Amino acid sequence: MNPVPPTATAGRNQLRSEGDVNLSPRRRTWAAKHISAETQRLLDADARHFLHQSLSTPCLNALKSAQGAWIEDLEGRRYLDFHGNNVHQVGFGHPRVIAAVKEQLDQLSFCPRRYTCEPAVRLAQRLGKLAPGDLNRVLLAPGGTAAIGMALKLARVATGRFKTISMWDAFHGASLDAISVGGEAVFRQGIGPLLPGCEHVPPPDNRHCPFKCGAACNLACADYVEYVLEKEGDVAAVIAETVRCTPFIPPPDYWQRIRAACDRHGALLILDEIPIGLGRTGRMFACEHYGIVPDMLVLGKGLGGGVFPLAALIAREGLNVAGQHALGHYTHEKNPVACAAALATLEVLESENLVEHARELGAYAMQRLRELAPRRPFIGDVRGLGLLMGVELLRNRATLERATDEAEQVMYGALSRGLNFKVTMGNILTLTPALTISRAEMDQAIAILDAAIGEAEAAASAAPARL
Ligand SMILES: Cc1ncc(COP(=O)(O)O)c(C=O)c1O
């Protein structure tokens, strides 16, 4: 049976939840101006040889290098990378990470299952020490999605239950188990039956809250989690991103309320900090902002220093109960080179004070972005934690109508000026630079953003009918 295709508009809006739409007229216009024949040949070859999938085909551009906070394309144009897929906590190609990788390659380049190795054990020890509370049992995996799968399995084994509660709009990876707990239509639709027992609840997004909190959150969304825990009665785990990388910043009491509800109902709390852990929010782990300790914490992305795919599940000591089950069993579970990259990354985070830097520079950037709002009517909200920042663009601040086309225009305008970022939910400019970024580079990025928003506003007032 052929899947029912979503309508063109619905399909496009669903794609927008994860990023910009790579088939839009604005993309074509940008490409016509910026993509040379040589780059186009590579893009065509990419499209010719890879299986096509939403969001990644066709590619936007081709890169030849990535250093520090910057990426550089084949034509030598440099972009401050405020997306970086969130692997660039220590910047791209950090010399200490690269040196550690090279050294490890000469020493021991792989560790077959049934064996262990020094870098893997040191990394597990280090992560256990860094993680809050009694989170000190570690399992490594070659990617975030895989680590989420291990967390879901461990929750089943530990509780003897299988149901989960997770958030609409959440992303936990693209595998079948991860999209079952994920909440984005673009991943869930048209792909067949998902895991049973995956209940979804509204995320803490006070701009579009179905409980109508009117942007003054009264934590009804947190209370609803407890309502579902109570009604279902046998939920294994609540799994969520501590702070969605859009970002949606939950109010201060949100996680405490959910933590307490989980405890009352015997459910585990799994926090996915794959893109935002390791300092991005101005604390080593985002849950530290909320004064809670989950039962399991999942890290990934930048853990491998932006060089190697590596993720970690860190669980409470008491959850070391699955000795008879294969939770991960991944071929690269204890890859020494990936572990060496991770150890170097953690050292760099500490020795270069990158967590404090993210906190301080993030506060500065947020203030500067907020100062733009009075003269940039498109800006509906500026929010963030550390160097996880979002600028929401609205057509109308009163009705909160999303400025989706305008956000795309701003994105391409910024790209043309040397700033790369992702748009999420159609209208939120999601800004996640390398934590190594300097204040001067941040000022440069904000100036570009200001100019790109100004250009989009000028275009809108020149053609008011479009609004
Ligand atoms: C919140 C979150 N969870 C899980 C994942 C999946 O990680 P990976 O792509 O390494 O499998 C991602 C990736 O973007 C993510 O942002």
Element layout with pairings:
Layout: H1 8-16, H2 25-34, H3 37-49, E1 63-67, E2 70-73, E3 78-81, H4 95-107, H5 118-130, E4 135-141, H6 144-159, E5 163-167, H7 176-181, H8 185-188, E6 198-201, H9 220-232, E7 235-241, H10 254-265, E8 268-272, E9 296-299, E10 311-316, H11 336-351, H12 354-372, E11 379-385, E12 388-396, E13 401-402, H13 404-416, E14 419-420, E15 422-424, E16 428-431, H14 439-462
Parallel strand pairs: 3-14, 5-6, 5-7, 7-8, 8-9
Antiparallel strand pairs: 1-2, 2-3, 4-10, 9-10, 11-12, 12-13, 12-16, 15-16
Helix pairs in contact: 2-13, 4-11, 5-11, 9-10, 12-14, 13-14
Bound molecules: pyridoxal-5'-phosphate (PLP).
Residues 143-145, 148, 171-173, 241, 245, 272, 274-275, 300, 311 line the site of pyridoxal-5'-phosphate.
Q: Would you kindly provide a written description of the structure presented here, covering whatever features stand out?
A:
The protein is an alpha/beta fold and 467 residues long. The chain has 2 domains: 9-90 and 354-466, Aspartate Aminotransferase, domain 1, CATH 3.90.1150; 95-351, Aspartate Aminotransferase, domain 2. The protein is 39% helix and 17% strand. It has 14 helices and 16 strands. A 7-stranded mixed β-sheet has the order 4-10-9-8-7-5-6, sandwiched between helices. Strands 11, 12, 13, 15 and 16 form a 5-stranded antiparallel β-sheet that branches. A hairpin with a 2-residue loop joins strand 1 (63-67) and strand 2. The protein is globular and about 65 Å long. The chain starts with 7 loop residues before the first helix and ends in a 5-residue tail after the last helix. Residues 1-8 have low confidence and may be disordered. The structure holds pyridoxal-5'-phosphate (PLP). The site of pyridoxal-5'-phosphate has 14 residues, from helix 6.
